Amino acid sequence: MLLHKNINIFSYFCSIVLLILTIICAVSVVICISVKMHETSVDFVCERQNKVVSESQAILSSGLNRVTELDEILQPLGSQTRLVQLECAKSIAVYFICLTLSAATGLRDHWRNGQLRHVFELLFTFLSGSAQKIRIEMLTWPLADYEHTLEFFSVAKGIYEFYLSIGACACLDLVIII
Q1: What is the distance between the alpha carbons of residues 68 and 65, in angstroms, rounded to a whole number?
Q2: 124-149 residues labelled b (16+ CB within 10 A) or e (exposed)
Q3: pLDDT tens-digit profile of 81-137?
Q4: Of 78, 88, 76, 177, residue with least CA distance to 127
Q5: Inter-residue contact 133 to 121 (CB < 8 Å)
Q6: What is the separation, in whole angstroms, between the first and last Cα of the chain?
Q7: How many Cα atoms sit within 13 Å of 38 on the Cβ side?
Q8: How many CA atoms lie within 13 A of 146 on its CB side?
Q9: Residue 29's closest CA among 173, 156, 155, 178?
Q10: What is the arithmetic mean of pLDDT over 13-38?
């Protein structure tokens, strides 16, 4: 009898929580795109890469007033795509968080049609402080990485629908780094 009463109380509690809370499914995917600067447009590629990366870290970590300028440059990518980090190696690894499937597919469309190259040229010129436009030689975003992104959003949607189907009161935060 006591077990039955506890189950009823728990069931009643979940019903109240379901009425009060909205089920939230926050899905984010981190996408890395490798960007190589054109060597003839920059005197010292390594120095410029280091300058671009260090300036981006300063702006992104401190929330300086220059974030507004950065937002204007990145505006064509949409509000569901956020620049999170740049790292320097042989090229610059640019990390974005895409909050939706449409943000990830939109980013890929910008990559295909060349608009992403233009955005990076504006971004790197801004971050380097150079008067000379920094040209981008190559953007690398392997198809396999993009396909993993699509698969992840598909799996996340399935998990969300599963929780909805069983009436679970849960908050899901799913993040994958690709």
Answers
A1: 6
A2: bbbbbebeeebbbeebebeeeebeeb
A3: 888 888 887 889 999 988 888 888 999 999 999 999 999 999 999 998 888 888 889
A4: 88
A5: yes
A6: 51
A7: 13
A8: 15
A9: 178
A10: 61
CB 35, CB 120: distance < 8 Å: yes
User: Checking phi first, is residue 167 left (phi over 0); if not, alpha (psi -120 to 50) or beta?
Assistant: left
Per-residue model confidence as pLDDT tens digits over 135-152: 889 999 999 888 888 887
What digits encode the pLDDT tens for the residues 154-170? 766 655 555 545 554 44
Which residues sit opposite 87 in a β-bridge?
Answer: 93
pTM of the model: 0.71
16 burial level (CB within 10 Å; 0-12, 13-18, 19+): exposed
**Domain range 5-177, CATH class:** alpha beta
Q: How many beta carbons lie within 10 A of that of residue 37, not counting itself?
A: 23
Domain ranges of the chain: 5-177
